[in-house]
Amino acid sequence: MLALALMTGCAGGTSSTDTAMSTAVAPSSSARLAPPGDATVAPPQSTTTPTTSTTDPDPAATDCSPSGRPTTVAYRTIPGFDTDLTSIDIYPPPSTRCDAPVVMWVHGGGYRSGDKANRIRDKVTLFNSAGWILVSVNYRLTAPGQVASAEFPDHYDDVAAATAWVHDHIASYGGDPARIALLGHSAGADIVANVVTNPTYLDAFGLGLSAVRCAGPLDTEGFDKTAANATDPDGDREQWKAALGNNPDYATATSATMLIEPDIGIPPMIGVVRGTPQRQRIETAFLETLTANGIEATTIDARSLTHGGVNANIGAPGDTVMTAPLMTFLTDCFTRDPDTGVTP
Question: Is 186 left (phi over 0), alpha (psi -120 to 50) or beta?
């Protein structure tokens, strides 16, 4: 069923990029969940002496306090790339129960810029206040003309690898690996939409689409790149060509609306509708295609917001557009029985 959250208002939020709130950790050479021929997926290490601890905390431990565990972890290492590009920042609430829901956030930036620390402070406050763990994800970026430049399918593979790391290790931070929500904005929304509609990416790390309890790809025309490329009023064509054009079929192979199928485990989703008439048609069509295939979809009317405002308003004081419907969606996602669909 397509639910519509008719919540509009003034754009708010912070006006500058937040600084990083965690400590970098050197990656381990120990492999976890790496597909054949791929790079390693690193377990956590100590933040104080990162070179002396390569043992995973015991996920079965009764003490779920995150104290002493790393706040930044390299989820994989790729030769030639800075490990910060394949790392996550983990923000547990001050007091974490042993089965806390987990919200993963994937930043935007046109596939070539952005960072996991951008616009993150209000999100930390919002999700931690609900007792949830926030995990903010970096991924390799496209840098045309440079040797260390991501191309198709690197961005998608990285987010899938991060999801697999969280699924495998978040219990040691007090998180529940069965309750992971994957959210993203702009290029991050495009990446999220691909990871949760195309089973290939998570399958490479031993997971099905059902490993993600729910998803929120927020504001992208990338749902249908063929339609967007026809007139390209927002100038997205060149960024997609630069990042994904090594696949000559990228316009169809990475358009999530065209990947939706019933009964393959695609999770419930929330999205926004805003922007130009073409953008609104593309975003509406994505959500309606989910519904037509038996997948629950919730729409936020974000026509009052700019593209950047969709991101900045999440958790921002005074926001009347994004925060309430997103939290309602996530609360339902985390409390509903995934098998019966019943909320206790």
Answer: left
Which residues, including other chains, have CB under 8 Å from residue 235's CB and lie 6 or more apart? none
Q: What is the mean pLDDT of residues 273-286?
A: 97
Residue 228 has pLDDT above 90, yes or no: yes
Mode of pairing for the β-strands spanning 133-137 and 87-91: antiparallel
Look at residue 18 and tell me whether its pLDDT is greater than 70: no
- State the alpha helices, DSSP H only, in the chain: 121-129, 154-169, 187-197, 199-203, 225-231, 237-244, 250-253, 256-259, 277-292, 307-312, 323-335
Q: Where are the domains of the chain?
A: 2-48+61-335
Q: What is the CATH number of domain 2-48+61-335?
A: 3.40.50.1820
What whole-number distance in Å separates Cα of residue 94 and Cα of residue 127? 12
pLDDT band at 338 (very low <50, low <70, confident <90, very high): confident
pLDDT for the residue numbered 91: 96
Sheet-wide strand order for 2-5: 2-5, 297-301, 269-273, 214-218, 175-185, 100-106, 133-137, 87-91, 72-74
